[in-house]
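Tokens in:
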């Protein structure tokens, strides 16, 4: 009978486990020096090796001839555990055996000494599925088990375990396996199976698996059923993914405001049975790649893609502004969430792409945005101080007249605002409130601070992305709404300082403030 690849190539010793040295090295040393714990807790995402290491550990502690902490896999105990004839190693699925009676039966069995092996080992998979009563029933036995019993608990959701259970176990965290490690393992498997795989195809499978070796081997198994030579195109077809060229073409339509062309591409993908939710997810990944390219010096250390794809994505990223890329990710993620709640996925995808096409920014629109932002700041100052117009002698514009472009606040005006500014203690609460509606917007303000000066909230940050985001009217409205909800007051937004001021003006103001605090009069006041 044919054995699927993830079962056929499941590691039999710790040395064969890929990408988990923090676990395997420690366990091998514990076995070598006879420092075994009575209870282990293995946590991590699916397909990272929790169950595999549980089975290897159960063999290693009972092996008649262990080698450097690894089981020999040749003695009668090792062979018996592999074929299931040794009854001293018990694997329990907590998803279907999660009641109090199941755990009570386990406790009664644990009192009996092993029939063949040295230790009776209980592997409880998906242990977070146990009921509260079952956890309570397990607690005492887990704390003081018989000397011949070892418990191995495995879970993908460790946060659901009671603290009393976790404190009684030796915990090991399994990490997601790196794409390069998965790709190398896939190439090895293909060489053993008599087929070939392109490097790009192996990296693509690794990216789809998201750090899970089992998922990558399952996808490879499907692809091998179609051809003995695994290519990137074959993997995409097998996984139901859109071609990379299709993603780049859709993004080009967004960049060129070609909504009709984008809809044609979506229609073509839909007719070829591409899932729209999956397409949306892939577009999110594509925009994420562009975001990392624009913010990192070496994005290839994080991104899993071929050199050709990286070059094309970099060229596309250079034509888009960072705040638009972040805003696009936010909108696509919202669309994906709505797709999962039963709306028409194709219509949702089309609406979102048309929306992005209408919002893509050309340099002219970007310049217009700067003027609008400056107008908003000037109008906010006028509203907060109505007498300023009469005192200045400026004639009010007639209804419908176009206001002239306002100038950036002078150094003296900014100094006066900063002189009266006090730190805004509720700023972290404002950012938390924004994160509920837009995590992309709130992440852009990480490390920022804010000050209150009269009717103004002045934002200060060393990251230009903060002020790039605030150039969008919708982001400014979200920020004002969050400030209103937290403080109960309607503030106007401003910038605490500009790059050309931070070098001199901030230092001068700091000196003036220090002199005032020391009681030394400052001339010119």
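Residues out:
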């Amino acid at each position: 009978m044919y054995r699927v690849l993830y079962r056929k190539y499941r590691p039999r010793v710790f040395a064969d486990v890929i990408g988990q040295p923090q676990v395997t090295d420690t366990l091998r040393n514990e076995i070598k020096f006879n420092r075994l714990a009575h209870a282990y807790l293995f946590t991590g995402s699916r397909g990272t090796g929790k169950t595999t290491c549980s089975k290897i550990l159960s063999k290693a502690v009972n092996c008649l001839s262990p080698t450097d902490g690894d089981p020999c896999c040749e003695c009668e105990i090792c062979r018996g555990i592999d074929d299931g004839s040794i009854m001293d190693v018990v694997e329990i699925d907590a998803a279907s055996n999660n009641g109090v009676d199941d755990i009570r039966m386990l406790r009664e069995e644990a009192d009996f000494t092993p029939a063949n092996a040295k230790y009776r080992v209980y592997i409880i998979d998906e242990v977070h599925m146990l009921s509260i009563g079952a956890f309570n029933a397990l607690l005492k036995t887990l704390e003081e088990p018989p000397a011949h019993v070892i418990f191995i608990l495995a879970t993908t959701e460790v946060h659901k375990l009671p603290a009393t259970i976790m404190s009684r176990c030796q915990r090991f965290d399994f990490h997601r396996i790196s794409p390069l490690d998965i790709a190398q393992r896939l190439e090895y498997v293909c060489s053993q199976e008599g087929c070939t795989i392109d490097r790009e195809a192996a990296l693509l499978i690794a990216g789809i698996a998201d750090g899970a070796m089992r998922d990558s081997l399952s996808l490879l198994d499907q692809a091998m059923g179609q051809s003995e030579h695994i290519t990137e195109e074959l993997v995409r077809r097998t996984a139901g993914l859109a071609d990379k060229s299709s993603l780049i073409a859709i993004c080009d339509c967004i960049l060129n405001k070609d909504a009709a062309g984008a809809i044609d591409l979506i229609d073509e993908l839909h007719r070829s049975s591409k899932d729209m939710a999956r397409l949306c997810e892939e577009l999110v990944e594509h925009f994420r790649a562009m975001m990392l390219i624009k913010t990192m010096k070496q994005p290839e250390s994080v991104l899993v893609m071929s050199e050709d794809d990286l070059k094309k994505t970099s060229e596309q990223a250079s034509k888009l502004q960072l705040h638009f890329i972040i805003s696009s990710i936010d909108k696509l993620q919202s669309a994906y969430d709505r797709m999962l709640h039963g709306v028409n996925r194709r219509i949702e995808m089309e609406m979102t792409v048309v929306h992005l096409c209408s919002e893509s920014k050309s340099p002219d629109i970007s310049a217009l945005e700067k003027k609008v932002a400056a107008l908003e700041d000037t109008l906010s100052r006028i509203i907060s101080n109505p007498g300023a117009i009469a005192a200045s002698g400026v004639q009010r514009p007639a209804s419908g007249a176009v206001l002239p472009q306002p100038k950036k606040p002078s150094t003296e005006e900014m100094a006066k605002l900063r002189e009266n500014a006090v730190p805004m203690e509720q700023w972290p609460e404002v950012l938390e409130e924004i994160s509920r509606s837009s995590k992309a917007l709130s992440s852009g303000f990480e490390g920022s601070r804010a000050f209150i000066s009269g009717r103004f909230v002045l934002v200060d940050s060393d990251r230009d992305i903060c002020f790039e985001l605030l150039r969008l009217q919708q982001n400014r409205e979200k920020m004002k709404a969050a400030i209103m909800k937290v403080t109960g007051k309607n503030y106007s937004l401003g910038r605490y300082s500009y790059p050309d001021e931070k070098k001199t003006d901030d230092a001068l103001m700091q000196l003036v403030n220090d002199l005032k605090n020391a009681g030394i009069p400052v001339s010119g006041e």
